[in-house]
Write a structure and sequence with these properties.
With 223 residues, the chain is of the alpha+beta class. 46% of the residues lie in helices and 14% in strands.
Length: 223
Amino acid sequence: HGGNAADAAIAASATIAVVVPMSCGIGGELFVIYWDAKTQKQYGLNASGRSPAKLTRQVFAEKGLSQIPDEGILSWSVPGCVSGWETLRARFGKKPLAELLAAAIEAAEQGAPVPEVIASYWQAAEPALKATPDAATTLLIDGQRAPRLGEIMKLPRLAATMRLIAKDGIGAFYKGPIAKTIVAFSEKNGGYFSLPDFADHPHGWTVPLSTKYPRHDLLVLPP
């Protein structure tokens, strides 16, 4: 439909956020290595999130922690995925973000059948999702159970969030109602997010590291 590889990657990433929510989502991060045929160059995009400004090393020291926990409020970082979509699209894409999110929104609203492997992942996550009321309401059938193999799973909350992003752009996520909702939830639950953490989220273009082996170029984003 007139798009290119960047557009296709964004549309696929958004759809995966719906149909494989345990592996990729708008609450997570995004990384890109992009080959531009026009300039004959590789470009890297690091759309990883930053820790809240209030979450200093002193906080961890006071809690007797030597590393960031795998779960809970101390592990939260600003989601970089939505920023990554728009940063990639603005530089290399051809289509508007709303059009690229359309298929994902449709899948979230109308539902999509759950494949075998994804059903098993969802089932394994059921106890953890049940432990948080909002997660249970959003990602479980009737807030009680994981979808079964072949069952049609709808995610209306995610659809509404993506519709807002499609309508108002990424400002809705980083400066508007979505950011405000996340920060309010964080404050209610003892988290460290603030609105400036979202508003000041950086866009991280970088140069991939590369080497040859033996006739191929191997590339990876730098730390």
